[in-house]
Design brief:
Blueprint (H helix, E strand, L loop, with lengths): L2 H19 L18 H9 L3 H14 L6 H19 L4
Helix pairs in contact: 1-2, 1-4, 3-4
Length: 94
């Protein structure tokens, strides 16, 4: 993936985590914008390797670490969205 493409994917992963995943319900507070940013590099690596099941496991484990019970259906939708962004960017439809 060229740098502009990977920068775009990084931005989109960060946005999906904050605006769509947001397991602790903080995305309405501007000062919390960086809350999930530390997860982006690991998710990017998994996306680049095509590891859908690993991303599902990671997000579920992160939710458990936040004392939440993961909703498998919701987590799968988030992972599908992440992979959709990756595929769109790779195909130049971004």
């Amino acid at each position: 993936m060229e740098n502009i493409t990977s920068d775009e994917l990084e931005r989109r992963v960060d946005e999906v985590l904050f605006y769509h995943w947001d397991p602790i319900g903080i995305n309405q507070y501007v000062n919390t914008r960086a809350e999930y940013r530390s997860y982006v590099p690991q998710i990017l690596s998994m996306l680049e390797q095509g590891e859908m099941s690993e991303v599902i496991k990671l997000l579920s484990d992160l939710e458990r670490s936040m004392s939440l019970e993961p909703n498998e259906s919701t987590v799968r939708k988030i992972v599908d969205l992440l992979f959709s962004h990756k595929n769109a960017i790779e195909k130049g439809r971004a």
